[in-house]
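retry 2 of 3: previous attempt timed out while embedding magnesium ion. Reduced batch size to 1 and resubmitted. Inputs unchanged:
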Amino acid sequence: MFEIRGLRSTIEGKEILKGFDLSIQGGQVHAIMGPNGTGKSTLASSIMGHPKYEVTEGEVYLEGDNVLEMGVDERARAGLFLAMQYPSEIAGVTNADFLRSAINVRRGEGREISLIKFIRLMEARMKELDMSFEFMHRYLNEGFSGGEKKRNEILQMMMLEPKLVILDEIDSGLDIDALKIVAAGVNAMRDKERSFLIITHYQRLLNYIRPDFVHVMMQGRIVKSGGPELAERLEAEGYDWVKEELGIADETVGQTQEETGGCLS
Ligand SMILES: Nc1ncnc2c1ncn2[C@@H]1O[C@H](COP(=O)(O)OP(=O)(O)OP(=O)(O)O)[C@@H](O)[C@H]1O
Ligand SMILES: [Mg+2]
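retry 2 succeeded.
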């Protein structure tokens, strides 16, 4: 359903993703964990087509369609969605306007959602997420607290009904109750077809959103995979044992070979 093969991506001439492979079947939830600076957000941005990241090699397919050949808008229309680690603020565009046009772009001309239907839908989803209706008319993310931004990302996800959902540290900044609400929102969206890629630092989120697979990312690629028990071991023991097991000295990416004395593969 979603397939990444040998993905390499650079930013400002620095290679960050170094041959990333992952295959996600419909309905599956995959979690990616990994130390800071190992390329997790870069992976998300590269999949979404962020202009700063240049994909130099590899392939990404969503239901057989070549994602890398699509423009940014097309990727969203095809059903890719990213809840960002740091959602940006857009002054002058209300949350409701933003979401309505995002939905309409996906639906295409002549199939736009009516205003009444849209408002009903948005209110229903906001209720599920225990959000005040006030957020409909606030400018997108402007002045939102950290947790409010994250909840709003999930609202977007619920309304856009994507095929592949990428959540980049959706748990960071959420209080304990909000974490449960957001997890319930995600779980409500799980079905036989929709796939999830969940980037997180903490096993706790995975108690609420049970993953099928857990992957560890280091040096711009997946270095270890397992089930939920892998996340539990990482939570308890950290990453040193993985590095030892695999003989990895520096798990981060971005340094050139010269800087590391050529130790990076
Ligand atoms: N715009 C940029 N300019 C320069 N370097 C960048 C840029 N974006 C990412 N990098 C570098 O790429 C490396 C990987 O960053 P990335 O954000 O993908 O890490 P991450 O695994 O998501 O880390 P974290 O867990 O801290 O969120 C880092 O060394 C980062 O500094
Ligand atoms: Mg990140």
